Amino acid sequence: MDFENARKAMVDCQLRPNAITDYRILAAMSEIPRENFAPTAKRPLAYLDEDLPLDPVGARKMMEPMYLARLAQLAEIKSSDLVLHIACNTGYGTAVISKFADSVVAVDDNEDFVEMANDSLADLEIGNAAVLAGELKDGLKKEAPFDVIFIEGHVDELPDELFKQLKQGGRLVCVEVENGVPSAVCYVKTASGVSRRVAFNAVVPKLIAFEKQKTFTL
């Protein structure tokens, strides 16, 4: 398969028509080989405009390229920013963000994904990103505070711990349900608290680790 042309078609046909105007994101996704982060059998599907299953049961999926790009653009990542990437899967989004952030530290709770991600980042000689194993809801307190927290998926609820790991002025982006519709949201931490802005509808993979805990009453 001609992955180079498939990558160019992804940028031209999926990203540009969907309001991706940040040239750094377009450049990064033109450069990073998405197929390197996919299971071998799934590589021919790497550039389709849909989520890519990463395990046999489809419990974890690589986010559709267009939504990854739109969330990255929503985060307004600066070249001086330290970014925490939560639920990074096999590291494709980490690699993309590394091209326009100062540095990226990523967390995933699947150790096989963590190993694959670090191997792929090393193969591409990306030196400003690393992936660690850990619980997604815990973030990475020892590396905090962060300028940006990027959660790659749909969450039911966010723990306060993650907001504690943001710098003042820091942004957290993820997908939540707004009026029954999955929507991309951006939180901004200020001296007076945390503000929340709904940006656009976004159907992305759900993260089981962020499911709302069921409560029982007698």
From TrEMBL:
Q: Which InterPro entries match?
A: PCMT, SAM-dependent_MTases_sf
A cellular component term (GO) from this record? cytoplasm
Any one of the GO BP annotations: methylation
Q: What is the official name of this protein in its record?
A: Protein-L-isoaspartate O-methyltransferase
User: Hey, which family's this protein in?
Assistant: Belongs to the methyltransferase superfamily. L-isoaspartyl/D-aspartyl protein methyltransferase family.
Cite the entry's keywords alphabetically.
Methyltransferase, Transferase
GO MF, any single term: protein-L-isoaspartate (D-aspartate) O-methyltransferase activity
Q: Which SUPFAM superfamilies match?
A: S-adenosyl-L-methionine-dependent methyltransferases
Organism listed in the record: Maritalea myrionectae
Q: Which Pfam families match?
A: PCMT
